[in-house]
Amino acid sequence: MQLGLFVVVVFLSSMDLTGSSKVVKGKRQRRISTELSQGCARGCDLCSEFNGCLRCSPKLFILLERNDIRQIGICLPSCPLGYFGLRNTDMNKCIKCKIENCESCFSRNFCTKCKEGLYLHKGRCYVTCPEGYSAANGTMECSSPAQCEMSEWGPWGPCSKKRKLCGFKKGNEDRTRRILQAPSGDVSLCPATTEVRRCTVQKNQCPEGNRSQCQARPGR
Question: Is the pTM here over 0.70, yes or no?
Answer without folding.
Answer: no
